[in-house]
Amino acid sequence: MLKKASLLLLIILYVSGGINHFIHPEAYLPIIPDYLPYPMVINIVSGILEIILGAMLIFSKTRAFAAYGIIILLVLFIPTHIYMIQKGGCMSEAICIPNWAAWIRLFPLQFLLMAWAWGHRK
After folding, report:
1. SS3 letters for 12-71?
2. For residue range 3-58, what is the model confidence (pLDDT) as tens digits?
């Protein structure tokens, strides 16, 4: 029962997070590092991938692929977390978190999210 609840929560997290990329792009664009080109495209692709991978978790036949895809996506998000740390947590007037919170987003949160996805690969 706990495993099913965890899986459902993971699905909701990624599908709703992906949708949020389209509803509130202003929350994502400032955290995309300056050195990456086409931040709007990166935001859109990230949102689409989160929705697709989250939906793929629903089906047992695609769950492992989705879990591995989520882990890869989280690895690709690491530069964003490093960028937030470099900027002291303040990316814009609307997005400003304490630097310690930026560190927690990278360590341990990012790796806990990877472990969570890993736990649902079967």
Report:
1. HHHHHHHHHHHHCHHHCHHHCCCCCCCHHHHHHHHHHHHHHHHHHCCCHHHHHHHHHHHH
2. 999 999 999 999 999 999 999 999 999 999 999 999 999 999 999 999 999 999 99
How far is 91 from 50, CA to CA, in rounded Å? 22
Q: How many CA atoms lie within 13 A of 47 on its CB side?
A: 17
DSSP state of 110: I
Residue pLDDT, tens place only, 95-121: 899 999 999 999 999 999 999 999 999
Do 50 and 21 contact (CB within 8 A), yes or no?
Answer: yes
Token representation of residue 94: 């609307």
pLDDT at 94 > cutoff 90: no
Q: Which residues contact 98 (CB under 8 A, 6 or more apart)?
A: 89
Q: Which two tokens stand for residue 92?
A: 């814009």
